[in-house]
Design goal:
Keywords: Coiled coil, Membrane, Transmembrane, Transmembrane helix. This is Type IV secretory pathway, VirB4 components. It comes from Mesomycoplasma neurolyticum. There is one protein chain. The chain is α+β, with helices and mostly antiparallel strands. It has five domains: 86 residues, no CATH class; 323 residues, no CATH class; 35 residues; 228 residues, P-loop containing nucleotide triphosphate hydrolases (Rossmann fold), CATH 3.40.50.300; 133 residues, Helicase, Ruva Protein, domain 3. 42% of the residues lie in helices and 18% in strands. The strands form five sheets. Strands 6, 7, 8, 9, 10, 11, 12, 13, 14, 15, 17, 18, 19 and 20 form a 14-stranded antiparallel sheet that branches. A twelve-stranded mixed sheet has the order 21-23-22-32-31-30-24-29-28-25-27-26, with helices on both faces. A two-stranded antiparallel sheet has the order 1-16. Strand 14 and strand 15 form a beta hairpin. Helix 2 runs antiparallel to helix 3. The longest helix is centred in the middle third of the chain and has 23 residues. It is elongated, with a radius of gyration of 38 Å. The chain starts with a strand and ends in a 9-residue tail after the last helix. The relative contact order is 0.10.
Length: 868
Amino acid sequence: MKFQSKKLKKHSKVIIWKKFTISDFVLGFIAIVIAFIFSKFVFAYNQTQLIQFIVMVPLTLLQWVLLLSNNGVKLYVYLYRFLRFLVSKKKFTNKNNKKNDIDFLIPYGNIEKEYIWNKDKTIVFGALRVYGKDIALSSRENQQVFINSLTEFFNRISNKITIVKLPKKINLNKNIDAIKKNFTLDKNSEYHEQWLDEMIKKNKNNIEDSYYVIVYAKNISELSIEIDKLKNELFNCQIYNKKLNYLELVKLLNEIYIYDENFSFNSATDKILKIKNAKFKSKYFLLDDTYYSTQTIKEFPTLLKQNWVQDCFNSLSVVIWHLKAIDKSNLYKKLSKTETNAEFNLKNEKDRFESRKKRNEFEALENLANIAAYDNENILGSTLIFLNKSIDLKNLKDIQKLNKLNLQKWNAKIDDLTFRQFEGFANSLFREKDTLNEEQEQIASNISFAWPFIYESFNDNTFPITGLNKNNNSLVFFDPRIKTEQRTNNNMFILGEPGKGKTTFSKKIMLANYAKEDQIIIIDPQNEFVDFVEKLNGQIVDLGVGDNVKINPLQIRENFNPSLKTKTIKQKNIELLQAHESFIRQWFQILYPHFDKNDIIFIIKALHNIYKNYFFENIDVDISKLKNNEYPIIDELILEMKNLANNEKLESEKIKFKKIIDTLELDFVFGRYKNKFNSFSNLKLDNKIICFNVSSLMYQEKEVFNSMFYLIISYLQGKVSNRLNKTNKIWFFFDEVHKFIDEDNMSTLNFIYSTVKEGRKFNVGTVLTTQQPQDFLKSPKIEKMGQAIIASCQYGAIFGLKSESIKYVNNLFENIGGLTEFEKSQINIANIGEALIIISPIQRLLLKINYNDIEKELFFVKNQMISS
């Protein structure tokens, strides 16, 4: 909590007795004199002193009653406001009746560049659109860094700014346009149509808070400098913002009072604020046909809670918060006088409870004075106005009640501005003059400590709806296809316990990318995606059953090497052969871990001879683009190995070579690999969604499974290696990637890393899922590689995990700052379908994933549930 002093004008009054000040006693004395004169002269005809006394006493008491307080306001002040309201003008129109003209109310003059002058040319203002940043998910250390940076922003205010919190109907037009552009009636129509219907229903029905900072100056050049200064300070807080042009600024002025989705403005003919009629009542006012009222904070508590601004903003009111730099010489004088009077009041207070209250208030005042003395923080005049609006009076009163309840949460008092609605409206306009005189002195850190820009929305202007932000219930549209300066690749890591929604979310990402004409390739070790792919008429490649799928390991494929594009054919072929040789070495080492270095060398010698037989080193075409039947197969490799063995003179070597040949012949000529790996490749990957079902391989030896996986990745890398700068993406989804980790052989994990790291250059996105993060920490080598893979993934999604697993996840994410204690607790208690989405090290969202009926039909397995 933070100390907050009371308004200095309250402290500055000397209290003589109870709550009566010197000025009250002066007024009381005047009341007695008036009563005496009235009784003496008005009733002069009656010489009886008793009658005069009887008249004087009630008159005096009546006037003294006016010195009593109601909600901290003297009754004579209410009387003054009432009388002033009675005699003031209350109706304004656009009929050009001079002071009754509506233009009399509006202070805005002409537009110059991107700014607006007031009518008398004494002040000009511009605006920044500020995009919220929720720091709740940041570590305490980072939160403090952000708060300190925002304090510096408020310290840099040299004149006046106004923070505007504007509740706006959410606008999904760009999302709807994106889906309409992608929509085709002959393809994907069923889920496209439901996505579109869903967004049309959500569009402009949901409300989200938008933030603006209005900046004032005396001339254009000064204003431009001030805006640039504050803009940079906000960026230092990692708060994105942009300067409004004059059309956006005029639209903002109108949105505060009037919502018009067809808003247009012609600077030559239109008034800046399009209000035709105004009528003021004691507790509300009407602008055209809409009801409005204004409220303000009458009194702050001595101790401020951190969420005090969030409570203020938690309603449909527009909040207009003026912050003005206070002249320091005047402030010092006021503080000196105020401290003296407050100390006097404290010493003379006899009531113990009141004395304790005054002592706390005096301590808060001293804190303010100390900060002023140190001169290391700005002290700002703060006036916060709630502008309430509704089409009916009942709803308007409900909004007012909600504001009052919200302030009670942090022990503040609200002022309904009875008889002062005109002044409240005038003060809601962007002008220099303060018509309310309700300014509260606040230090910069008391404002930044509350983090006013808390509402963070996230919309990639894409489809479909990803989910709801758990912190503020806003719609989230997340597209991992997007790359920016801050989002440098499309890779994603998804973690979560079984049954928490990890696989279902993966299907949602797949479907969204598939609907955008990307190609999806899934490595499925648990048979979890076959049904989903079949529903989309996709291709199932079953590597465990049947002989129809053939992959030739001796087919030369281009790998992830963008530099090959700049090489000559001969240079490229040499590098392709070198890369293929390296692949064959690793592949046989994985398949036969008992082969030693010399055994592998023997195989490579035979491979080199085959290269020569096929003239691969001298051919004048790209050897990675030959037809499938123009490459050698394992039969030819074995035959060449036999030739080498026959030419070997040492009998011991012949025996050794024969063992190697026998092993390969047993598997590739007569045995389990004969049909799959000893034929020309026949695998066509033309379908838009392909699932490699490797579930049956999971029950075989790990050498068989790992070698098959290594071969698949090599084949897929070869497929996409000629996709440099292609528009549509290819997505690799590796499900339950922990199953491919072998601490005895790092080749497979290294290959995954190369796919994640280099794929971005070929417009490839890689998504890895796992339920066992601890498998990435089995050894220092695996941990290092696991962290490198995570570091190469721009995005992350962490579903529910147990505390023990969260510890491992934190280690994996150490390179990007790890997880905060709050994030850990949320992951630990997450319901099904709830996740922490990591957009970047500094941008994270807690989501409840959204699934519509079509998605449920496509994604859910029998009896599956998602938390509602």
